[in-house]
Amino acid sequence: MATSEDKNIRKTFTVLENSKTDNEKFAALLLFAKTTNAKELSLEDRKRALDAIGVTFFNRLLKSKNIPEDCEVDVYRSLALKILSGLCGDNQLVLEFEVYKNLRSINDIITDSDSQEDMIIDCYDLLSAFAQTEEGSIKLVDYGTVTALSEVITKHLPGCEKGQIILQSVLQLCGDYSWKKDTPSMQVVLEHFCKQLETFQDERKFDLCAVVSGIVSSLPKDVAKKSLQRTWFKSLVHAIADMFTSKLGQPQRDPALRLASSVLDKLGVDCILPPNRDDCKLLLVIIHLSCIEVRISLENLNPDQIMSKADTLVSCYNLLELIICHMTSAPSLKLDENQVLQLHSAMEGAFNSVIFYLREQSELEIQRVDPSQIVLASVRVLGSWVAEETSALKARVQEILPFILKLCKCQLKCTKTKRPSLKKKSVKFKSDTEDRSESTLSSELESCTITQEETENNTIPENVDLSKDSSESHSDITSEDVKDSCSCDASESDNSNHKHLVNQDSTNSDSTRTNSEESEKLEINKSDQSVCSNSTSSGTSVSETLISAM
């Protein structure tokens, strides 16, 4: 049996659908606002109401300046925003009914310091619905809302805290698109936050780390290259130095490490080295703290606690990978002997913890189709260490190689299923870790001499030597293994194998077969030599690189 409330709703819908003129629609809207709570309506009822009213009518109400003398100045806009925010709380409806056409009017309202508080709240409710999806976030960028939010934040206008949350969401979903559309506004808002980060000396400093990290992570490469001359860059580096030279508790370490990871990833390790800093002590402090955090997390926490610290742990992994890349490809850090020994010892301890964690997870993860992201991240960072340091922890790495290789093959098969056209890419480490291909890890790990049969049986041959260079270490890998790992072009090899099978009684064909296999191995060695950086191929490990830096 229908309640009186249901009857009122049906009556209101009837009035809305039968209204023809603007005056009739406005009267129906007043009735709708008085008798109905739009936020409690079902999705079907909301669509029905939006169809009856029409988004263009809302647009006219928001822009209309012909206000009756006995009415408030914002009566039309206030009514339109109240109903729109109630009906369009769902992120699908704001796009389906083209509510984005009203965004410019909303921008004017949130940047007007004289706007009513209720109107501003309704505006941000609508903007929040847009910011929940990538398509909606792109609309916010295209219609100038990000520019408006930047003005709201920098001028501390009403609603700036909500505007900050929405801006973070947009940057996370759109990446560098916001910068490409309006670089000046983004520079202003970044400078605003970096100045605050430098100035604040309380918990607000660490609350801002996530905001600044999100903005820096969205920097396009061309903007990042020119950032070292910006005012905000100096404030940012000074703020990072201030944090890492202070005594930090656990609540402060996590955001500080995540910020440092984002900054070094986008701006490069050089940004905290001379001439931007007097010395390299800040980098050493960050790396030491990252190593300590990795050891504490992987050795002392249970699996659930480790997953809760996933963001911080991955940030520490990224910092370790960045410093390895820098030490093996960039100019010397000019460290003294004590600093060299301390740095190598700290990193060796961190990677020992990574191996300990992977060994614990091997029996569990090998049973699963989709291993946790922490496991995959741990394998990747260990791969960066193995690619450059061939002597330290060699025995412990050998123990978990069967698990790692099987995991890599499983992941590559999943990748091939999703992207059949996966091509082999060069995997030399670069300063920008984003340039590394998805096949990097498996290629690095296959530099060890393990055959496919030995991997499947989870056994390690006695003659495995991780210190071998790439030209020797691939001698026992079959062409099928290489094909499975990195989608190599093996058509010539297959053709030669076929000819050999057909003419196996012929001595000449046997000779051709031998030459073909030698040629094939040569090709494999050439392609796989890109796995290790120049320091590895020349027999130089991380420890030797550090010693040369003295």
TrEMBL record:
GO biological process: neuron projection development; regulation of neuronal synaptic plasticity
One GO CC term on file: dendrite
Listed InterPro entries: Neurochondrin (IPR008709)
Residue span of region Disordered: 425-550
UniProt cross-references to Pfam families, sorted A to Z: Neurochondrin (PF05536)
Highest taxon listed in the record's lineage: Eukaryota
Biased composition (Basic and acidic residues): 429-438, 465-486, 515-526
Low complexity bias: start-end ranges: 439-463, 505-514, 530-543
Family the UniProt entry places it in: Belongs to the neurochondrin family.
Protein name: Neurochondrin
Lineage of the organism: Eukaryota, Metazoa, Spiralia, Lophotrochozoa, Mollusca
